[in-house]
Amino acid sequence: MTGKRFGAALARFLLLLLVLCPVGVLAAAGEPHPALWKVRNGASTVYVLGSLHIVPPEFQWRTPEIDAAVRATDIFVFEVPVDQQAIKHQKDFIVHNGLLPSGTSLRAVLTPVEFRTYSRILHDAGLKPEQFERYRPWLAAVIVGLAYVHGRDIATLSGVDDVIIDYAQSQRKELRYLETIEQQMQLLMVGDDLAQVKSLKRMIVALPNSRSHAVDLLESWASGDTRRFDAMIDADFNGHAEARDWLISRRNRVWLDPIKSLLDSGGKTAMITVGAAHLGGPEGLIALLCGAGYGVQRVGAAGAQDSDACGPGA
């Protein structure tokens, strides 16, 4: 991948990971009903739920349809594990891949103004900036984005995945994962050092607009407006098809096989919970499942009938 083009898309993609807005922003938006899909093949059923990996801590996103699907599920499938072993692997990965060599720091690659902005954002989030000076640019971009959007809530962040994982574990259900934590973190390391520095600089510049972008993403997801949500994802990756393929489409193609395995054997019910950006568009998981010959239905909200997700105009 070309470093320049990937760096620009990476800054946008990082903002997709940091979605959060004040609960009050959505108070007048009505009852939330995030989109849920159902795929059947013989006696097997797979539900597909697009997740936001971070949501406001008191935001009520669950619906009767989602709760019913969760209760019916035998096998829960997520992107990556989040248990203590995964956290250990994540820390080990950061130690080996996320730190600049001893004696160097971000001061050497950021302008004085950029470094002061970086440090102020971390400080305002209750973090100690000096502890993050040796972070490599790709990791610094993740941290400063989280710190800016989430502020002092950064230590207690959770998302849709966490809620469903907690339920599955409490019910002693089977959990499966599509990737390792190392594979997912390696996605953010692609590109040479210069590309990663440029990505960090773009992140710092883009942060003032990130909160309104986060609000729009959350509103469209919560309302089940998949067309609007997909359009926003398209805009974020506009002109960066190669980066979108690396970060989204390529992974969808890899994930399709384990999802097909769930549909083609066992006669059990499974729920796939992955980032909502993976579901829409011609290379999204819903289109891939339709293209593989499966009948996909969008589950009706608030008592509405299910609808065909594969036909014209779906």
Which tags fit this structure?
globular; 314 residues; 12 helices; disordered N terminus; single chain; seven-stranded mixed sheet; alpha/beta; 7 strands; 48% helix
Question: Would you kindly provide a written description of the structure presented here, covering whatever features stand out?
Answer:
The chain has helices at about 5-15, 65-70, 85-95, 110-125, 135-150, 160-170, 180-185, 195-205, 210-220, 225-235, 240-265, 285-290; strands spanning about 35-40, 45-50, 75-80, 175, 270-275, 295-300, 305-310. The protein is an alpha/beta fold and about 325 residues long. It has one domain. A 7-stranded mixed beta sheet has the order 4-3-5-2-1-6-7, sandwiched between helices. It is globular, with a radius of gyration of 20 Å. The two termini are about 35 Å apart. The relative contact order is 0.23. Mean pLDDT is about 85; it is low at about 1-30.
Short description:
With 314 residues, the protein is an alpha/beta fold. It has 12 helices and 7 strands.
Number of helices: 12
Order of helices and strands: HEEHEHHHHEHHHHHEHEE
- The residue fraction in helices comes out at 40-55%
Q: Characterize the largest beta sheet: strand count, sense, and whether it forms a barrel.
A: 7 strands, mixed
- Supply the helix-strand structural class: alpha/beta
